[in-house]
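Late entry, evening session. Most of the bench is empty. Finally got around to the prediction I had been postponing all week. Sequence below, unchanged from the version circulated by S.P.
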Amino acid sequence: MTDTSGTTPGGARLTLTFDAFCATHERAWLGFVRTQVGPRDNGPELVVAATKQHLRRNWALALRQEIPAAYAWRLLKEHLAAWRAAQSEPVAVQTAALDAVIDHFRRQARISLETLPERIGLMTAILELPERRHDSVVLRYCLDLDEQEVADFLGTPLSTLRSNLRHARRRLANAIGQPELAERHKEDQ
């Protein structure tokens, strides 16, 4: 059995790698959970703390995964689902969290959403994306992660991520009645 307490040289190395891994990824984990539940009852902090505890207990296993970030992402999603299920009342995505997501996405895509119906349309379209595309959009455009980081989190090849983002942009642009936005993004790259 591997010592992850840090009392042996191998255990100390595992502790260092775990701490460095968490320091690298925690901002994105916390940001993602905030977009899903808002600041409700310190939910984001509790979900990330539970994920880190689970990950610490299984760190040696995580390191044997092809992409440790994808393993950690799956844990985060499991803990997020468990936290939501444990709430006494259903957790609706917080308006403030979504407003921040919409504003950031709008700035990233350089689009103008002046009316409430346009904002609601984009918000609804993001929520209705399939899970992988939703996660891709939030991580890439709302949390400003680079494409390789997003691909690592999702455990997917870069080409698949780019395809998911392209399809998501097209769907979102159509949802707000501005299909030309999907093509404009391609020109900006």
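Two things to note before I forget:
The chain has a mean pLDDT of 82.
DSSP finds ten helices and no strands in the chain.
Will write this up properly tomorrow.
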